[in-house]
Structures are given as structure tokens and as C-alpha cells.
Amino acid sequence: MVHILKNEKLEIHIDLPSVNYQFSRFDWTGKITAVKYKGIPVSTQEKIDGDPKHIFGKGFYNEFGIEMPVGFDEINKGESFPKIGVGLLKKDVKDYHFSHPYRIQPATFKISENANKLVVECESKSLSDYSYVLRKEIELLESSFVIHYKLENTGAKTITTNEYCHNFLAIDNELMGSNYILKFPFDLKPEIFDAALNPEKKVLVDREQITFNNTPEEQFFFGNLSGNKMVQASWELINTKSKIGIRETGNFKTSKINLWGWKHVISPELFFDINLKPNEEIEWSRTYNIYEID
Fold first, then answer.
1. What is the rounded CA–CA span in Å between residue 200 and residue 214?
2. Where in the sequence is the domain holding 193, given as residue range(s)?
3. What separation in angstroms does the CA of 53 have from each of 20, 57, 92, 207, 268?
4. Total domains, the chain
5. N or C, where is the chain less crowded by C-beta within 10 Å?
6. Predicted TM-score of the model (pTM)
7. CA 185/CA 204 separation, integer angstroms
């Protein structure tokens, strides 16, 4: 079932845990597949040629532990480890990789709906002294929406990982090009990035913004844009042709921001670090404002 939150300005399409995407990477709780502002799409999908098998990202999918899934290094092949928001995954390779198709034993999900809000709760099975309860609330406001997270450690071991939202963005389905401007609330210094994959040199990184001199045919990636410095978790994407902007603001600071994209999509990623002792809980949120520019 697809759940829709809608008002006069915004329309948010959300797949429930048992619908469509059932792969082992992204969180299944409240999968935001598409967002429209006054009928104009501001999000897209990972693959430009579609996703008939529902194994790739869409809209505003988030993920826990892209590089450090809980408990993976502590177990042998054939044993299972928890992937937060998904379930128990079977370890069948030496090194973890987010795109590997792990066998899944799904977690338990509970859903609560009302006119402007969807709440999905994910409760894990206990495994190797790890267990948790994740609660995600997606709330629709006048011209914005908020994703509230609450993670409770119900196990006997500390949960150390991170979470980010992939943000598959494209305004009015326009390909990446000279009409896009991406801004961050700090100076961009390419010499301190962890990685800079820009094979066609079509992505331009200036001190105050990221732009394009043409549409990239190949994927691009920039790692750790703040160079490990703690900065406000925020970005802003503007399309000067459609005159629509979208901004994400986290209620936290971050030391890790990545940027991935392709010809049809751009994905700024704000990471939230988690170090949760037994019987502790933590809350954080991401607010997305969509607006028109002069």
C-alpha cells in the first residue's frame, strides 16, 4: 500500500514496509518515494531507466550503517547481523558492501496513520546481544515536511553506526546542468575532500556553491565535503529555470557530508553519528522546506 500525505502545496508518496522496495540496503520504515510541490516533482530515483525489481533508491530513502553495519565484524560467515530498519541479514561475504544482496529476515513493523502524519515503528529480534526499536515519524506541514527519528537500544551491547538520507533530487525532472545551484553553510575546499570523482569536469566546485557547466553523462562523487569539521547539517538546491528551491536542515551538527550524482540526479547526504549504550535512546530530525524563488 502507498500512503499519501497531501495539502495545497505538497504531496508526499510513502511506501509502507511491505510494499515495493524489499532490498537489504535502505531503511524500510516510511520509504518516501516521491515529493511534489504544487504538482512539480522535486525528487527522482537512483536509476534513470527505472527500477522494475525495486532494488534501488528513490525519493528520500535513508540508510543505517552504509560502511559500518552493526555487528558485522563480530560474526562468522553464515551467521546474521542486524541492519537497522530492515531486519537480520545473512553474512555470506568477507567484507560488507551496501549493494550486496544479503538474505533478509525482516524485522517487525507497526504502522500508525493520520491526516498529516505517518508513524512506522521497527522492532528487531535480539541477536548477539543487539536489539533496538526504531520509530520514524513523517509529518507534513504547510510547505515542508519533517522526518523525526527515535532509536532505542534494547540490547546489551552498544550500537555504534550512522544514518543518512540519500536525497535523490531533481526539480521538475530536469537533468543536471547550468540551471542548478547547490549550496552548503560552509566554505567548500576541494583540497580537504576525502574523494573527488568528477571524470568529465562538468561539476564545478566553488567556495560558496556547486554548479554544472554541462550535463554529466557519468556518475560523480565528492566525499567528506567539510573535511571532518563539525558543521551545521544543511544544504540548499535551487533550480533557476523552475524557480523552485529545496532545503534540508538537520537538528544536529555533522562531520560527514557526501555528494553523489549522475545526469538525472543529485544527492547531498548529511550523516548523523550514533553511539548508543544499552537502555539509552536518541532522537534527531530532518526538515525539508520547498519554496519558490524570485
1. 9
2. 2-292
3. 8, 11, 22, 40, 25
4. 1
5. C
6. 0.97
7. 17
